[in-house]
Amino acid sequence: MMASDGMLSLSWNNHKATFCHILSTLREKERYTDVTLACEGKFYPVHKLVLSTCSEYFEKMFEHTPCKHPVVVLKDIKCADMEALLSYMYDGVVSVLQQDLARLIKAAELLQIKGLAVPDEPPLKELSKKNAYPWSSRDDRSSPHPKRRRREDMMTSTSQGSSLPPPESPPSSPQHHQESNQSWDHSKSHSQDQREDGVDQRVGDPVEPAVEFSSPKQEASHNQEPVDESLVKEEVIEGSEDNQGEGMDSRIEYGGMGGGDSNTGGEEQGSKFPHQLDTKHPQPLHEAVVEALAGPSGMQGWLGTGELGGGFSMLEGYSEDGNQEVHPASTGPHGTQQSHQMVGLNGDGSRNMKRGAVGKVHLCPFCVYSTLRKDHMTKHIRTHTGEKPFTCPHCSYSAASKDNLRQHVRTHTGEKPYSCYSCPYRASHRSALQFHMLKHQSS
DNA sequence: CAGCAGGGGGCGG
DNA sequence: CGCCCCCTGCTGT
User: Fold this and answer.
1) pLDDT digits (tens, 9 = 90+) for A24-38
2) Which residues form the C2H2-type domain (predicted)?
């Protein structure tokens, strides 16, 4: 940060990487997801915001789909491709086998994924002009411009008239619930199914418009010709034999997130963070998120306490009080967490507010949890940070809360504080006693 | 049964 | 306000 005339410029060094990473994490946790993509019987809860950001196709679709949580059924797109595209949209990178590239690109074009889709018809005129790409002249809202090396013109040769989603084509026959039974494995399903049809897949009628479960039939269908805003193609990872098995798994790499406090430089470091977001194995992402958030030079300001009124408590790291506080009057405990105010909201002295009264709502910066008690938030945050300050004197166990440690210690000491009043039974756990009491009741 | 997480009451500083 | 303590419910083995 630099100061000029008292004006501070606070910069969050690895903001982009952090942002993307958290987004990805949110998707894995299916948090805040507000649209479900369905293809091949699999369901992918994702975020409209992200889809809209990456695809005008989706943007327009959602624009005309007021329902809260639409389910978009994608025909003619393989779930493997869908997963790859989601990985691409969320992480900005995806690994794909060369043999699958054509199919993937085709899917990307159908969905008009920025950065992956190419302008369909290479300028009708001709390729004559080198920079004939549409985006060169457009304002371009900072959409990605990755470069895809065109290794072969496989797709362009075979599919010259291919893509462009059908302007109309309402989902006349909603075949989306067909496999509803086996389906809800919106799991991070990673279908390895290598289809043989591979390259030459029908793209004639691409994407079926949205339908949703519960809401009064929207006109979600009419996705009119979305403006073609496609960009350059993406760069494939060449010798990707190594990740064949997981070919489509999302993979993220980001720099500048090394949790160490060494990076005060302020520039993104190139240090790759080999986190492999294996969608199958959720993996302790929390820590990664925390690291990202707790970067020493990172912008903890918005996480900082509200009490600081105006002042930012940078450098104070993300510790216990790293939670935002807002007045419930202005924002409800749920639903508006996204608005991370960076200001100290309580100018007034809300000092002698009885605990639990309508004082401050403490919002967890990692999840939707909210509480009126700061000490509860402190405990809760440990569930994200993984901090377990209470260690068992008898074993290596450690707990995040003293209570839970005490509970654990009973397993060593054999203490059974819960005793049945009608028989000598004793239990070390409350719920065990309750279960035991049921027997007395039944008999 | 053990672990974990959330909520509430009480108390002292 | 922070901490201690207790209670409760859920989950996994």
Assistant:
1) 888 877 778 888 887
2) 362-389, 390-417
